[in-house]
Amino acid sequence: MKTRNMLKTSAFVLAVPLFAQAEPVAKNILVILADDLGVMDLGCYNKNTFYETPNLDKLAAQGVRFTDGYASCPVCSPSRFSLMTGRYATRAGATNWFGAKRNGRFLQAQMIHYMPSEEVTLAERLRETGYQTFFVGKWHLGEDEKYWPEHQGFDKNVAGWRRGSPASYFSPYKNPRLPDGPEGEHLTDRLATESISLLRNRDKTRPFLLYHSFYQVHTPLQAPAALVEKYKAKAIKLGLDHGENFGEEEQAWQSTQPRRVRIRQNHAVYAAMVESMDAAVGRILDELARQGLLESTLVIFTSDNGGLSTSEGHPTCNLPYRGGKGWLYEGGLRVPCIARLPGAVHGGRVCRTPISSIDMLPTALAFAGVSLPADREIDGVSLMALLENGNVPERDALYWHYPHYGNQGGFPASAIRMGDWKLIERLEDGRVHLYNLSTDVGEKNDLAAQEPERVAKMRSQLHAWYKETGARFLQPKPGGPVPWKPSFYIN
Fold it and tell me: Which of 13, 77, 275, 331 is the most exposed place for a label (fewest CB within 10 A)?
């Protein structure tokens, strides 16, 4: 089943030419990936955000800001897999963060804990055509060293290894791919310095891919003390230091304790983490400008999943989106996504076309004039025509498959979005929910009972996608009940 037919909502809000013509120059690519950053954490997405993100707001003002940008999974490793390959990680059975072991009423689906070497990454494809390729930051795509960046197409690897979170945001880092700095050195600053060094010392006769992958804002919740104090004072000034911070969310685990979700932004440490990440983005972009590279570089900024709102400190609020990291509600899937092409007309554009992690590889390769890998299905589509002139790519649906019990309280589920409609299928018992995101972005009004024909159509298409991608499902515990599976599934 090909997934290339039209998935149309509205495209650009302002139907004007988006980009001026640029002179033929080297086509460089900068990918900046945040970890666990919520879509409502940036000022350009949320004018009332507690956090301060002037550099990313400036990038959005220069480029295209996608309102309906999605991670391909509500947790990190599968979405990072998709960013690297243009493919749903479901195809490889890499459906949870690598190292996950949590079970619930049932055993989680069988999975692998690495990105196979047989996958063709963005870095590998670009390096084949003469690009120099640099990786800085979080990798988390395989326990064994043979799966780390230097073996997946990158000429240089700084700080990328098996772990998904730093031992500390301050030196010593205990990272085999990052020598310790002076005691107390800040990791986020250090990684920005490393990226700037790579830009300064690159081969200036060849184009480059720089993939800067923040550990920020993943736990542990740590930040420079002066910034933390700044936001403590800000919370007091705004009256956010008292009152209710939490509401209740569904308890999907076998527990009598209610699930809490943060309902307002006021976490001083998290705010400081967001600002220090934004400052690092600014340093890297300033270096591009200093070298005269902004007008020859495609810049893409996004996050690997939604904001952490239901566990592990509950540091941020994703409202009006429901849930957060680890959930297939919009709060776990919607992410900030900003793209800036060379020659961008200043003023900013807003695009409401749904896009996904799987689209980064085909977009970057199209920008570079490099063909897609020919021997495998690429699930993503190039967004170049959308960026250049507002032409919406052809695609019938976006898909998610998470047959796991998220550490953040989320339930095992799959989902499909077609136009404004989103269907969630629970994998414990096969129940479905249907939401119209154009009128109910908070996913509060389940329309499944009122729309049986739509449910049947979307569910049939989701099940066809299961078959195409070889999706795996929950397993029974020894002697326990048998979980739901789609009718075609035999094992």
Answer: 13
CA distance linking residue 47 with residue 344, whole number of Å: 23
242 Cβ contact partners less than 8 Å away, ≥ 6 residues apart: none
**169 within 8 A of 220, measured Cβ to Cβ:** yes
> Containing H/E element for 274?
helix 268-290
d(CA 328, CA 480): 26
Please, are residues 464 and 456 in contact by the beta-carbon 8 Å criterion? Answer: no
H-run or E-run covering 424: strand 421-426
CA distance 4 to 358: 13
Query: In the prediction, which pLDDT does 1 show?
Result: 44
Inter-residue contact 306 to 331 (CB < 8 Å): yes
- CA 328-332-337 angle, to 5 degrees, is 125
DSSP-assigned states of every residue in 238-261: TT-SSS--EEEE---SS-SSPEEE
| CB 295 within 8 Å of CB 342 | yes
Q: Is 143:99 a contact under the CB 8 Å cutoff?
A: yes
**Length of the chain in terms of residues written:** 491
CA pair distance 66, 70, nearest whole angstrom = 9
Residue 245 corresponds to which tokens in the numbers above? 């911070």
Tokens of 389: 């002139």
Q: Which DSSP letter does residue 296 get?
A: G
The two tokens of residue 31 are: 């990918």
Q: Which residues of the chain have pLDDT under 50?
A: 1-6, 8-24
Cα separation, 42 vs 33, in Å, equals 14
User: Which residues lie closer than 8 Å to 436 by C-beta, 6 or more apart?
Assistant: 420, 421, 445, 447
- β-pairing, 132-137 vs 64-66, is unpaired
Distance between CA atoms of 151 and 214, rounded to whole angstroms? 20
Cβ density class 143-166: b for 16+ within 10 Å, e for less = eeeebbbbebbbbbbbbbbbbbeb
pTM: 0.94
